[in-house]
Amino acid sequence: MAEPALSRVLVAGASGYAGALAAVLVDGHPYLELSGVTSRSYTGQRLDELFPHHRVPMVLEELDLDRHTEGVDAAIVAYPHGAAAQTVAALRERGLKVVDLSADFRLRDRATYEEWYVDHTAPELLDGAVYGLPERYRAELRGAELVANPGCFPTAAILALAPLAGHLADVVIDAKTGVSGAGRGATDKTHFVSVTENVTPYGVGRHRHMPEIDQELAAAGATGLVATFTPHLLPLDQGELLSCYATLREPMDVHGAFEAAYAHEPFVELVDRPPGVRDVRGTNLCRLHVHVDPRTHKVFVFAAIDNLWKGTSSQAIQNLNLMLGYEETTGIS
Length: 333
Ligand SMILES: NC(=O)C1=CN([C@@H]2O[C@H](COP(=O)(O)OP(=O)(O)OC[C@H]3O[C@@H](n4cnc5c(N)ncnc54)[C@H](OP(=O)(O)O)[C@@H]3O)[C@@H](O)[C@H]2O)C=CC1
Ligand SMILES: CC(=O)N[C@@H](CCC(=O)OP(=O)(O)O)C(=O)O
Prior knowledge:
Blueprint: E1 7-12, H1 17-28, E2 32-38, H2 47-50, E3 60-61, E4 74-77, H3 84-93, E5 97-100, H4 110-116, E6 130-131, H5 134-141, E7 146-148, H6 152-161, E8 168-177, H7 192-195, E9 200-201, H8 209-219, E10 228-233, E11 240-248, H9 254-262, E12 268-270, E13 286-292, E14 299-305, H10 309-324
Bound molecules: NADPH dihydro-nicotinamide-adenine-dinucleotide phosphate and ligand 2.
């Protein structure tokens, strides 16, 4: 059989954690060619100087929309929320397929986005954007032009709870995350001295991922559900663990539902003991452990992902594979 045609891919925002890893994964992919890497603050520096563990010797450049899109098939945009939408729109105007790592196209409802984020600068693109969780939207992702890569907590939460969604009366999601989830810029909260030998809850009662989790659990069949979600910051560089405690409306075959949902998924593994973040580090895997409490019939689901991989950049490659017609696991298995 003939080899698939190569696609050229631009990574915008490659001086950040997510963009840099996306560039590495594009560079190592057998059918993708890294066409350029952009940054505003590190123009002229090589990616492997900025991140010595990332062996991509390409020079970061200021984004030039005309030059960087010529002969290019797709882009991964790794900008912060609010900053991404206009660049995404400009890249789409020039015909590129786009995976946006920010939240700018994740929420289907513009008013909800504007309530939790900022005013939307490209609302006309919302309807055509596909939510980039392949385990839920594989058919729509094949051939999609604009993909909204999910948030890291929503990725793990939805994979952990979608098989139960239609039966959920209530759910508590207790999440733990490494510091790279907050991006490269250090703040008082992410400073080494604040984080080391410490565990702190944050975003209590209001975290940007709440409407995204509720939106996608509703899309999976939940009715009238508002999940209780609290993340905690741990002294880890990367990795995320979600402990989910679900109350069901009625009895169901819980283990059967998870088997049915994930038996053929290449990147979701059901495991016999609770997973740790180290088990999935540097992989596109989500490991799930499901336990039904015999006393209360509550369902405990533990989900581990690497926030920079399945939570962001390797999931972006999984999405690009589907968008560009390659086998879904190429370059990330
Ligand atoms: N880190 C994670 O675990 C996850 C991140 N994401 C999302 O991925 C995106 C990137 O995150 P992450 O890499 O962690 O963040 P970083 O802060 O590490 O990187 C942000 C990147 O965007 C560029 N940038 C910042 N502000 C602007 C702007 N106004 N216009 C254009 N470029 C800008 C920065 O580079 P420069 O200043 O050089 O231009 C840098 O390249 C975000 O939307 C984030 O929410 C999603 C899931 C998980
Ligand atoms: C430690 C930390 O701050 N983590 C981030 C999660 C980042 C993420 O998943 O992404 P989006 O910002 O793209 O939604 C947070 O809680 O906001």
